[in-house]
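Continuing the series of single-chain predictions for the mutant panel. This is the parent chain; the variants come on the following pages.
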Amino acid sequence: MTAPWNRTVLLGEWRLLWRDPAAWVALVLLCLALLGALAQGLAREQALAASLAQWADTDEAHMEAAADLAQRLERDGGEISNFRDPRNADVVGRRLGVQHLALPSTRLGALAVGQSDLHPAWHPVSLESRDRLLAEGELTHPRRLALGRFDVSFVVVFIAPLLLLGLLASVPAREREAGMLPWVVMQSGGFGSWLMGRVLPRLLLLLIPVLIVGTLAPLLQMSSDGTGGEGQTLARGLLWSAQVTGYLLFWAALALWVGTLPLDGARSALALAFAWLLFVVLIPSVSQVALDLAHPQPSRMAYVDAMRSATDLARAEGSDTLARYLEDHPELAGETVNLEDFFAQRLLVQQRVEAELEPLSAAFEGQRAARARQAAWMRLTSPALLTMDALADAAGTGEARHRHFMAQVHGFHAEWRSFFHPRVLSGEQFFDHDQVPGFVYEPEPLRQLWPRSALLLGSTGGFALLFAWLALRRCRSLPKVIGQG
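Parent structure:
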């Protein structure tokens, strides 16, 4: 008897939804929000891809022009400033041959901005220090950062739950107020089956459009795919869809549990609205404040003052520093040693300053790592925080993929400096433009993505199972309560 009763309830609910103006309004609002967010995401990704392609072409053109000019000056002669001479290794490594490295977008990047607007879209690599290079990367305007981006993940995390709770607020409060609840409880299908039959169509009404948009995004995005092939695109798409499903299931389970409580329609709606406010707004805000109080960033002014002091001292001893370095590395001295060589002194001064600032840099990095660890624990308090991180991670715009990229950037920066440093210190003319290292991005392997996604999805699913279990207990005890009443 259970299966026919469920089928009857489902068919009846679909008919009610078809005639319910509130269901149509919720569906239209969700579709408009999803399409608007997807259009903005696709436009953003297309503009970013065009900008990065332009940077790549510009870097290649600058290197080719420097190589041609160096050969022409060597062949035909001519006067040129030492600070613009392409035969100077320092000039090429610091100015003329700068490379701009960018994290390639996945084909799901239009679905979630994630952390991509908090990190530079490209990182220049040259002989400059790492801190200065990171400061020169492209960053979004602070006002835009404060307002945030409107993307599909925003619609999923903030708007879709509100619409779903609005459709479920009167389940089963309407039957309770009409006095039909005892009759429903006495049916052979059971109260739990009837309640599930009412919840499921409303959940699918909002879940299906989200999943359709998630499927369309990689098909419509024409930017370069940095995930390593269609296999990773499919895997990330499945993870994104699973995270969305788990998140909306949590809200459906929460509404299911509230529906079993002895509340009328107005109180049920108020309880669900408070739950949305708690999980989506209050807990994330309090978590951020607690994070700032527990792990404040070290003083940036102290870092700048230390950098100035170390730079002034190193510059004052520039000639001595160069002499000591050449004594330790006589193979770089050449036949004639010029202890007043500006480029060699600047390079060694920079190395000395970086060495003296290493403790402060380590303090910044340690504090940031501590914040990241605490943030990982704090997100377990809210399904909204879990889902926001999970959707960004699946789309390739999360913090983990950016760290994977930055590790490669730092490695390439070290390779760049190891190529140019000996040539700068030797003082010989530079003609190895075609041997300058090139950067090749290595995609993050799926074996690193799966455990993170499984943890986030499992945590969100844990919230959903908790409220589903509470609702099931209420459904089983409700007939006894009504019978005694």
